[in-house]
Each structure stands twice: as C-alpha cells, then as structure tokens.
Specification:
Layout (H helix, E strand, L loop, with lengths): L2 E3 L11 H16 L7 E11 L2 E2 L2 E10 L12 E8 L3 E8 L9 E9 L7 E9 L2 H11 L9 E2 L2 E2 L1 H4 L41 E5 L5 E2 L5 E5 L4 E5 L3 E9 L4 E2 L2 E2 L1 E11 L5 E10 L5 E7 L9 E12 L3 E10 L8 E11 L1
C-alpha cells in the first residue's frame, strides 16, 4: 500500500482558539512549578492519502525527530501512535516530546505509517518535515523560566561561567568590526596588563620628532647655525658643499618589541634656488662604533617655499643604536641670501 501525507502540515498548539489559550496556560504552569526538565505535549495535524485518495480507516503512525533533513541521530526514541482514525484524509495525534528535542536548533520530523492490517514495518514518508514554528517558542519559554536552568544561561552553547571565570583564554581568536574597537577599563590602574614577557605587538606607527636645534657642524666655521621659531637656518660662511649632523633621541624597544625605522619626513626651504639639499641620510651607530646607513636620498631639494619630502627605507630596519641625520648642503654663495632652513623632521617607526 502506498501512502503519502498531502501538504504535510505541522501545527503546534493549534486547534481552536479556546484550546490555544488552554494549552498555553497549562504549559506555563508546568514549567514554572518544576525544577527539572519537563516533557512537552504537542498536537500534530495532517492529511493522509491512501492509494491516491483521501484515507478513511485506522492506521498506525510512527513519529521520529531528527536534527538533519536526511541523516543524523534520533533526538529521542520513535513515538508510536496506534489505531489512529483517519476521516476524509484528516487526522490529529497528541505527541509527548522530551525537553531536549526543541532546544533552539532545527528539528526534522520523519513519519512512518502502516495500515490496520498490522504490516510488519512502517512505510516511511519522505521528505522529513522541518519544524520551526511553535517549538522555538517553547524553547523561549524554557529559557526565560528561572527554574529551568538547563539552557537559560547559555550563550552560543557555552555556560555563562565560561565567560566569567578567570582561567579561560581566547588564543588565536580575533575581533573585527566598524565601531570604536575594543574598550577596556579597570579599577586597579591597569586597563591592559601583559603578563609573562610583557610584549605587546601593534601595527600602529610611532612618530618621533627630531629637533633641528641640535644640529652640529662637520667643520666648525664653514656654516653658521641660527635657531629660529620652530626651525633652524644654516647660513654658509664658505660656499660649496657643507655637512651638518642632527642627533636623534628615540626608543629602540617599545612594549618589549624592537622598533624599526620606516621613513623620515623633512620640511625645508632655501633662500636661493641655486642652493639645495644635496644628500640626506639617516645613520645609526652600534655599541662597537660601527655605522650603517638606513635611509638615503640624493635628490636635489631646492624649493624656495616651505615644502616637505619623505625618504623611505626599502625595508624597515631594526634600530640598534644611536641615530643621527646627516645633511649635505650645497651653497651657491655665502651669507643669508643663500641659506637653507630645516623645519620639522619626523621619523616613523614600526614594530
């Protein structure tokens, strides 16, 4: 015999309006007066065709709940309902469902049917029916009930103590978003405390300003150094190429991680276009007195108006010692009409 349920309808707690109210009140009383999980009672209504026509006879039904539309383990033992009277294809049965079936996940119902002749096995009707209506509301009732502690305080299937205990970690986890980022606050004076090595890695850049007031002549009387308002002018006493140095104080380690020099940005102007910055270098000295050039620019810079330019390291290099900037100026003449002025100098460091 071939059976199928036409337009397989799953209606929970739906009969008549007065019974809707009755079952709702009964369910509420059940869950608020017990401290252990309780079984749920639901009504299944369907339409059965037998041989292509609406059925009119008694049939045995079997109802099995799964968490997958085609496979997966049974969520509880099959529910067998014998000798169900079907009239004009319509039938309704009461099912007792365990408390762990409807816990917020998708549930699929498989139905088996056999005739009153008591065939040895059930004919399984396909496909399984996805149930997403009233049982989810049932789960909401359970979660909101203070006496039903099984699921009420879980987040993403983790108990609330997983988020409040002190020995948990989130290694290899990441957070992202378009808001204001992560805000931490503490009452002990440390919003962030890095235990162990104390190292903190950051992709943020660190910018250090070098003061041109600290400039030193390579030859004592070849150029005059004249500090001004936020800048320093270099006036030639002897024309041609002259060299000055500007030492820089900067950290070599930040939060336990070595810093690397990425770039230098220099602002300047010249009084006469015939004078120019011939070479600019960033050099570092090690503890044994050796030196290395980290960044170098040999483009002639001769803007008579304030301008700035950036010289970039091909690869950021680790700062291992004292840093200074070397400027080689070319003066087309002597005196203030040929001077070169250096303004702000920024060194950009990364970890």
């Amino acid at each position: 015999m071939k059976y199928f349920i036409k337009k397989n309808e799953v209606n929970f707690l739906r009969r008549l309006t007065k019974f809707n109210i009755f079952y709702g009140i009964l369910f509420f009383l059940l869950i608020t007066n017990v401290s252990l999980p309780v079984s749920l009672f639901i009504t299944y209504q369907g339409r059965l065709n037998d041989g292509g026509v609406p059925a009119n006879d008694s049939y045995d039904f079997q109802f099995t709940f799964y968490d997958d539309p085609t496979a997966g383990p049974q969520l509880q033992a099959p529910i067998e309902v014998p000798s169900v009277k079907v009239m004009n294809g319509l039938f309704a049965v009461e099912l007792t469902v365990g408390p762990d079936v409807f816990d917020g996940k998708f549930v699929y119902l498989e139905i088996g049917v056999r005739g009153s002749s008591k065939a040895p096995s059930y004919t399984i009707l396909t496909p399984r029916q996805k149930i997403t209506s009233a049982p989810q509301s049932i789960f909401s009732y359970l979660s909101d009930n203070a006496n039903y502690a099984g699921n009420a305080d879980k987040l993403d299937n983790y108990h609330q103590t997983s988020f409040s205990k002190t020995d948990h970690n989130h290694w290899n986890a990441s957070w992202s978003g378009d808001g204001n980022g992560l805000t931490l606050s503490s009452s002990n004076g440390y919003d962030i405390y890095a235990a162990g090595t104390g190292k903190i890695k950051s992709d943020a850049e660190t910018v250090i300003t070098a003061n041109p007031y600290n400039a030193v002549r390579y030859y004592q009387f070849d150029v005059d150094i004249n500090p001004k308002y936020g800048c320093c002018s270099f006036t030639p006493v002897t024309d041609g190429s002259q060299t000055v140095y500007i030492p820089v104080d900067l950290p070599i380690v930040k939060y336990g991680v070595p810093l690397k020099l990425k770039s230098a940005t220099i602002s300047y102007k010249v009084s006469n276009a015939g004078s120019y910055i011939d070479i600019a270098k960033v050099i570092w000295l090690t503890a044994n007195g050796s030196s290395s050039i980290g960044i170098e620019d040999s483009t002639n810079r001769n803007s008579i108006n304030w301008a700035h330019y950036t010289i970039q390291a091909s690869t950021p290099y680790v700062v291992e010692g004292s840093i200074f900037l070397l400027f080689q100026f070319y003066f087309a003449g002597t005196g203030s009409n040929y001077e070169i002025t250096i303004g702000q100098i920024n060194l950009t460091l990364v970890q």
